[in-house]
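Data deposition worksheet. Section B asks for the primary sequence of the deposited chain exactly as it was used as input, without tags or linkers unless they were present during the calculation. Section C holds the resulting structure in C-alpha cell form. Section D is free text for depositor observations; keep each observation to a single sentence. Incomplete worksheets are returned to the depositor.
Section A, Depositor: J.P.
Section B:
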Amino acid sequence: MPKIPDLDAPIMPGETSAGIMIGSKIEGMLAQAGLPPSEVIYGFHKLQSAKVWSARGLVVQIGVYEGYRGLLGGKIGIGSTIAEVGDWCGCKVAEDVDDTLIATGRPGWSFETDEWGGDHTIGTNRNARVTAIFVFRP
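Section C:
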C-alpha cells in the first residue's frame, strides 16, 4: 500500500486528493500515513502539505497547500490564478456561503487564494494565486 500523503497525486473533485479517498476510514488513513490514531490537531490531521478532516470515523474533506504538486485536471494547482481556474473550467469563479471560492457548476471542490487587494472583488483580483484546494463530497 503506498504511503500517504502522495504530494504528486491528482486532485479529483468529490473523490480524492493527496492519495486519500473521501469516505475512507480515518483509522486506515492514519495507519497508512504512519500516524497513531490519537494524533489530531484542532479537529483535523496534518500530513505535510495536506490536512484531512473526518467525521464519524470517515474522511470528509482533504485540503492541500503550498508544497503540494498534484493538479486538478492536469492544469490547476497551488499557485494557479483565479483567471486560470476560470479559463480551465470555462465557468464563473464565485464565493460560496462559507466565503471560499468555487468554480460554478463544478461541485466537489473549492479553493482559497492569497490576500486580495483593491475593492476585494473577484474581477479585480483575477491574478490572485491559489493557496489551498479542498476536496469534499458535494
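Section D:
The first helix runs from residue 26 to 33.
The first strand starts at residue 16 and ends at 17.
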